[in-house]
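Hey, I was hoping to borrow your eyes for a little while. I've dropped the whole record in just underneath, so have a look:

——
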Amino acid sequence: MPPLRPVDYRTLTRVFERDGFAFNRQHGDHLIYTKAGVKRPLVIPTYKELPVFIIKKPPPYGRDEPRTVLRPPQELLAFALQEPPVGSLKESGWRRLAMETYYHPGDLAKFAEVGTGNKELWEKFQTYYAAVFADGALTEREKALIALGVAHALQCPYCIDAYSQACLEKGSNIEEMTEAVHVACALRGGASLVHGVQMRKVVEKLSM
């Protein structure tokens, strides 16, 4: 088997995600991943070129823990980290895995960077945003549940991430959060169905 080569950290995160690991949080420039059955989270530094020793053995989270080998299946490493010859059958699959993605969990922590282009507007938005989600006629917990439903209706992965955490922090449970998602689903479905009226009008007009 050809030797492994340094890769962008995003390629390695996709390898571990395919092996069942899930993004948990970001600590500085390190991404923390967890997996059911694995006692300690693993850390993936956000380096453009991860050295091979990290690819083979990502460090566990916590200095007091021994370094445990946490390897995904070797075929995943081979598929993702070893570029196949041009024109091979695996080339197109490798390209899909290695290409950039629009949504990366670590990007949520960079939200404030959007304000660098216009600090005044960003600060006004922040003030408004904080006021919207403060206790009022609705509690912060209720507003977080509404936001979670809207996040699913908008299909914004950043919002789903943020308001899933917010709902838990405000005291909601999985049953309440699931119902909020179903409310969003019902509205999206109903909105699609009601447009069937437009379809029927067109059909009736053309059938005259």
